[in-house]
Amino acid sequence: MNELILDVNGLKKSYVTPVENLVIFEDLDLQVFKGESVVIAGKSGSGKSTLLNIIGGLDHSDSGSVIMNGCDISKLKESELTAFRQKVLGFVFQFHHLLKDFTALENIFLPAYMAGMSKKNAMEKARALLADVGLSERASHLPAELSGGERQRVAVARALINDPQIVLADEPTGNLDPENAVLIGELLFNITRQYQKTLIMVTHDMNLAKKGSVRYFLENKKLNRE
């Protein structure tokens, strides 16, 4: 039987504006099983990134629960949540968020080193991941010396360095040209499968969405499975 790794129940998120209480989504449920590649598609402004941020503990819901590995993350203190994210989650954002003064290799290495891995082991693992994303020859290059697609490849490798159970990808191809968008999309699906990770991705790219093993569409405040 498949292992339930994420159980989202009755989630509601709204924002208070000067003119209204804007409900982003409500009564939202989502179950994700270990090893799945789940894609949540929807138009810009539908709340996809907000949902992913709540799942990742980067934002809070108004009500409902997010239970990951049997842990209700909404009940964790901030320090506990930080440690939980570091251990369980890997993030790939639309904008790579690489440290501009560090090389490609160092950007991948740092999260593992900061998590307590020895410098030697962290560097070895970073080099292996850099090879897996096809950038061994770019190890010493700074982000400014890399193309947009290359920077996002580094970000994918960085997301895997701490051996997370779940990789969360927020519009990972949204800032790339069409050719690189296809390449990065394929890389994400392939490398998370290779490393036996669960992938949860949000995107407005329907061609990319079709590659997921499970697909949802977020529209009119509701999440519907295709």
TrEMBL record:
Which EC class heads this enzyme's classification?
Answer: hydrolase
Gene3D superfamilies per record: P-loop containing nucleotide triphosphate hydrolases (3.40.50.300)
Enzyme Commission (EC) number: 3.6.3.-
Q: Which InterPro entries match?
A: AAA+_ATPase (IPR003593), ABC_transporter-like_ATP-bd (IPR003439), ABC_transporter-like_CS (IPR017871), MacB-like_ATP-bd (IPR017911), P-loop_NTPase (IPR027417)
Q: Which residues form the ABC transporter domain?
A: 6-226
Quote any Pfam family the record assigns.
Answer: ABC_tran
Keywords from UniProt, A to Z, are: ATP-binding, Hydrolase, Lipoprotein, Nucleotide-binding, Transport
Keyword Nucleotide-binding assigned: yes
Got a GO cellular component term for this one?
Answer: membrane protein complex
GO molecular function (one):
ATP hydrolysis activity
Asked whether the UniProt record includes Lipoprotein among its keywords, one would answer yes
Q: Which family does the record claim for this protein?
A: Belongs to the ABC transporter superfamily. Macrolide exporter (TC 3.A.1.122) family.
Protein name per Swiss-Prot or TrEMBL:
ABC transporter ATP-binding protein
What organism does the record attribute this protein to?
Treponema rectale
